[in-house]
DNA sequence: CCTATCTGCGTATGCCCTACGCAATTCAGC
DNA sequence: GCTGAATTGCGTAGGGCATACGCAGATAGG
């Protein structure tokens, strides 16, 4: 019943059949998607219009629609392609999941526009699923059941994605406010926001390395998972 | 040096001075923002155009620009207002952070469009900062230093936000693929994605309650934080 | 060779944000 | 009260955007 699937997924999984008659295609889906990713990486998602993409490809805007149903479908193809292959994982679930999560975070830094696109559907693209599969493989030697493994991989994903969403925005673009710490100090007073004011007074936002928040959160999550694994390991302790 | 701040922030913090001359304003920023949130909640962010918003308010589209510099600024105001006041927290850092994170997740479910808007800047809106402050307050009685507290609150935020981003999309909108588990089973074979195929065979995606993934990840993170707190507590153990 | 098929793309539509400027309204100061 | 400055609502218009539709030329199977 492959016929019931949306066209997008058929193309993605190579189920769509290639035409035999007609002229040789000058454009190819791969070239379109690669160029679109290039534009989004360099100039941001807002700069990616069908017109600009066509100009970069040396064709007319409407030519793109022979290969892509609409712009949303193009975005799905881009999301599928941009992450590339997931990394090989070192032995040990903890090192494996840490490597996987760091690689995922690196993808978001390389392609920040992914964070602005919402799938509108749970992941069914091969690109996403290969990452999920690789993440799950980190738990192969653990006593966690399959549901727990999915939950833990997703938790790690949320952490990497969330931190990237804030950090990536901090690095790129024209900063609206140049001195973040200074602006905070100006607004946050002890009687409005006591806990936050204390943290600011402690200099937390002064010279924060952007990586710290991610690594600290990941370490805590891994510790928590370790507790669960130890509790489920029969012999160990 | 408040004058160096962007206009948006001045308005947000009530620093902007009110005009004394000129006609009584028929429109107010509060009414514009509230109506915009209403539209985005009901019909999605894509349905929120300046024209539609004006129609709902009974004014001309260009009238809005007397109160809002542009659409991006409107989105910032909406993001500031929509979350409302953070919840009061129960005693104990663990219950406190759990309550805070669940409330945050509920905000994303009530206003899914927030997940599609990127701030373009670290948070300086009073609405965001009040939530951050409340989250930090959960750690008041713990030996964690201020930097660690911020890191842990952010980690919890990432988790709630990330899970909402996937779940909210799953609940709303017209599902592209009705039978997700069935589609997965069709595509994922053991030789492509071995770990994922095992999970699917285990029935993980068949009848998953959407809350499970969030609560499981949160429990693990809290366990990890507990380890850190215990390690830093002098007397306890 | 004929014909079904496929590609590239020109034209045109409708939506979107918003720059600009005008007219009406209101208040401060005289 | 009068005058001028400030402020509001908004009509017009321009530029960008995605994309429906249909045509011309190229191609390969029969």
Automatic annotation (TrEMBL), chains A, B:
Q: Which UniProt keywords apply?
A: DNA-binding, Transcription, Transcription regulation
* Entry GO MF terms: DNA-binding transcription factor activity; transcription cis-regulatory region binding
Keyword presence, Metal-binding: no
GO terms for biological process, alphabetical: negative regulation of DNA-templated transcription
The keyword Glycoprotein appears for this protein? no
| DNA-binding region ranges | 49-68
State one Pfam family annotation.
Answer: TetR_C_1
Lineage top rank: taxon: Bacteria
Q: Where is the HTH tetR-type domain?
A: 26-86
What's the protein name?
A: TetR family transcriptional regulator
Question: What species is this protein from?
Answer: Actinoplanes siamensis
């Amino acid at each position: 019943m492959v016929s019931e699937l949306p066209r997008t997924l058929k193309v993605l999984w190579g189920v769509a059949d290639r035409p035999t008659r007609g002229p040789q295609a000058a454009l190819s889906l791969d070239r379109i998607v690669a160029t679109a990713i290039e534009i989004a990486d360099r100039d941001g998602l807002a700069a990616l219009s069908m017109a600009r993409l066509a100009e970069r490809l040396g064709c007319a805007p409407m030519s793109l629609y022979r290969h892509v149903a609409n712009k949303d479908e193009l975005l799905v193809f881009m999301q599928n392609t941009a992450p590339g292959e997931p990394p090989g994982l070192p032995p040990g679930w903890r090192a494996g999941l840490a490597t996987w999560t760091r690689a995922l975070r690196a993808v978001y830094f390389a392609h920040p526009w992914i964070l602005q696109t919402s799938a509108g559907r749970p992941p069914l693209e091969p690109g996403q699923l290969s990452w999920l599969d690789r993440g799950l493989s980190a738990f192969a030697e653990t006593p966690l059941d399959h549901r727990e493994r999915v939950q833990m991989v997703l938790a790690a994903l949320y952490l990497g994605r969330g931190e990237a969403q804030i950090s990536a925005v901090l690095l790129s673009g024209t900063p609206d406010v140049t001195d973040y710490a200074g602006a905070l100090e100006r607004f946050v007073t002890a009687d409005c926001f006591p806990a936050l004011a204390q943290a600011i007074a402690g200099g937390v936002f002064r010279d924060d390395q952007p990586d710290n928040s991610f690594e600290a959160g990941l370490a805590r999550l891994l510790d928590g998972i370790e507790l669960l694994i130890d509790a489920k390991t029969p012999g160990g302790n």
